[in-house]
Amino acid sequence: MTSIPLTKTISIDDYKEESPDKNLIDIINHIHSVKSFDHLLDLANDWKLRDHETDSIKYKGLTTYERLIDLVLLPGNAESRSEYISIIKNQLERNNQQLKSILNTTPGTTINDNIIISTPTPCSKVFLFDIDNCLYSKHLNIHMLMQILIRKYFQYILKLDSYDIAKKLNEKYYKQYGLAIKGLINEHPDLKIDPVEYNSFVDDALPLHEIIKPDLELRETLLKIKQSGKFEKMWLYTNAYKSHALRCIVLLGIADIFDGLTFCDYEMVNDMICKPDPISYWNMTEQVGLRGDTIEERLKECVFIDDSLRNLEMGMHLNMKKCILIDHDVTEPYLIDAREANKKINVIGRFKDLESVLPELF
Ligand SMILES: [Mg+2]
Fold first, then answer.
1. Which of 37, 49, 53, 212 is deepest in the core (most CB within 10 A)?
2. pLDDT digits (tens, 9 = 90+) for 183-225
């Protein structure tokens, strides 16, 4: 008799979805509140950034993180606003140049021509991939850098002297609206905030090329899935804007693998729909070309991987075939009992673990 290995199963309420870099955000907040780097290293024993590769890359004598901390410490007063703009513009230019210099230099940096298509071919079996903290690890702390840039934008656009107030508003809007920018637009209609500008000051201004490196193991796993022939399309599904999504997949060296991209459209100022709103899932099925009259019919052969449990729960609720949570702290894959009866969400710690969750693909 062969023994079946038992996989640990936990209840959905027992899964703790912590902010991916809570400690780091606390440290940045501390630096800001005491306005000093003193005692930082004592405080930051588990500050993973200390041995981060980017610490060796300097620009104007400062590492990426030193520059970002400088940015946090930049006062929100009128005189500093032009300095803030010039720091951001400078970073955008450097990001652009770097991206241009690597585009189309290898298969992995060549974006599939059809990735943002208008007339999709009909299909049923699709593998859906979230991008941030999914295709790259949350341990890269990109989420924390985003938070810093969001708060600086809040300070800039709302003319706030206090970083702490910007932080509180950011958290409030994120909770209430799912995206900080949606809160900014809704609560401050008089400012006529442009989400595309916001995106360029936040996501596009991240020094991603100093942080995200080509991931050959990820590429190999994705190619195996593609070559298995079990899916008609490999599809990116993100709440970020397209510029950020495309930059991430080029830097990871996987840009040629995907057939399409569903992103949050920052150009639709009053209609920015994102996961886990069911309308976002419906729009995605339209873009992918999934067959069926109902959303449940359309999603029944789809597999979805994301780092957000909320997004996966909605996927399960809408009848997806398999939903997989990626949490880079996990060492041994396990299962979460979904709220839907008899449904489970797989939890893995890295893409390679997909081989145990979907053995038929490998
Ligand atoms: Mg994500």
1. 212
2. 999 999 999 999 999 999 999 999 898 889 999 999 999 999 9
Matching CATH number, 22-102+141-209, of 1.20.1530.20, 1.10.3720.10, 1.10.10.10, 1.10.150.450: 1.10.150.450
Contact 141, 175 (CB under 8 A): no
134 alpha carbon to ligand 1 midpoint, in Å?
A: 5
User: What is the full DSSP assignment across 157-177?
Assistant: HHT-S-HHHHHHHHHHHHHHH
CA distance 263 to 239: 6
Tell me the CA–centroid distance for residue 212 and ligand 1, in Å.
Answer: 15
DSSP assignment letter at 231: -
Terminal Cα distance for the chain, rounded: 25
The mean pLDDT value for 136-149 works out to 85
Considering only the top CATH level, what class is 107-136+213-361?
A: alpha beta
Distance (angstroms) between ligand 1 centre and the Cα of 36 equals 32
Distance from the CA of 37 to the center of ligand 1, in angstroms?
A: 31
Distance 350 CA to ligand 1 centre (A): 14
Give the helix ranges, DSSP H, for the chain.
22-34, 40-43, 64-73, 78-102, 142-158, 163-177, 180-187, 195-201, 216-227, 242-251, 278-288, 295-299, 309-317, 354-357
> Ligand 1 centre from 20 Cα, in Å?
10
| Centre of ligand 1 from the C-alpha of residue 347, in Å | 14
Cα of 327 to ligand 1 centre, how many Å?
10
Tell me which of 16-20, 71-75, 195-199, 223-227 is least confident. Answer: 16-20
Omega within 30 of 0 (cis) for the link into 276: yes
Which pairs from 171-178 meet CB under 8 Å and 24+ separation?
178/274, 178/276, 178/277
The domain limits of the chain are 22-102+141-209, 107-136+213-361
In the beta sheet, which residues pair with residue 347?
325, 334
